[in-house]
């Protein structure tokens, strides 16, 4: 290219020195043509490079998978975490709301009877009052037994409600893994812009185990036990 | 009766420990992974194993398989308590020799029922043989 340009330029100078306008014009046209060709070739090269890069992006199925499945998945999983934690909080609050009055009533009864019993021990209680206090004491024992049973159950329910932390923790771990994959995809995409050729294939690390079932996300194939009865039925149907 | 509780989430171990306490099983040990649980089991003295499945070092399934493969531990009753609910998972565990399978979230009643069932079966086996 440069050699042609040089020789054309030399010819141009000769033609101009000879006053050969027709020839000079022709040579100028040729030089202009050369420049146009060069420009077109450069544009062509850049277009091809852009096209190749875009093709390599769309061919990179991991990135497509991230955008189409994994990220919407991750949003649903986090939504589920919100609803699970809300449910656990509400369960606990319900128990607390139910049991505070029970505990308060028991406490009031105990305090009241304690005062009366004190007077009895100090020999300041007439017989008639002692009889009614006896009845109150019996009633108090009955009431205590029921109330304490309720409190015991309530405490166990609060204990169980804390199980959300394990399940949501497992779900969040998976989302963190996804974020890590998106991060590395983005880093690679950024480095591509300074590089020719297709990026190296990304290895998405999938946990081997499916983990806690997020309704609407993990149960689409209907191959999931939704409650303990399902588990028991499946096992007994197979003879276990 | 010494029970080993294995789960990578300490909150879950705490819940199971308290539930077992409520059922009268006060002698419990804990491990945070199949990897750390196995040497405890191999040492001996554990009568019952309650384990999660999904754990980073050694999964509950691999722990179960290791237990069943060890002649000293082969008959150890194992209850799996896990969030893994896919049918093929449940079948894999049953085939590997798990004695009971409880999915999370679970109730105290379910845990009690499964434990009692396991002990019943063991009793019957002992009486039958």
Trace the largest sheet of chain B across and list its strands.
2-1-3-4-5
| Proportion of strand residues of chain A | under 5%
Helical coverage of chain B, percent range: 40-55%
Query: What do the pLDDT scores of chain B average to?
Result: 93
The coarse silhouette of chain A is rod-shaped
How many whole angstroms does the radius of gyration of chain B measure?
14 Å
What gap, in angstroms, lies between the N and C termini of chain A? 83 Å
Rg calculated over all Cα atoms of chain A: 42 Å
- Report the uncertain regions of chain B: none
Secondary-structure element series of chain B: EHEHEHEHEH
Total of helices of chain A:
6
User: For the largest interface in this structure, which chains are involved and how many residues does each contribute?
Assistant: A-B, 28 and 31 residues
Shape of chain B: globular
**Biggest sheet statistics of chain B:** 5 strands, parallel
Average pLDDT taken over every residue of chain A:
86
What assembly state would you assign to the polypeptide chains in this entry?
A: heterodimer
Strand content of chain B: 15-25%
How would you portray this structure in words?
- The complex is a heterodimer of chains A (240) and B (129).
- Chain A contains 6 helices and no strands.
- Chain A has 240 residues and is mainly α.
- Chain B is α/β, with parallel strands linked by helices and 129 residues long.
- Chain B has a 5-stranded parallel beta sheet, with helices on both faces.
- In chain B, helix 2 packs parallel to helix 3.
- The two termini of chain B are 22 Å apart.
- Chain A binds chain B through residues 156, 159-160, 162-167, 169-170, 207, 209-213, 223-228, 231, 234-235, 238, 240, and chain B through 7, 9, 11-12, 14-15, 18-19, 22, 53-54, 59, 83-91, 94, 101-108, 110.
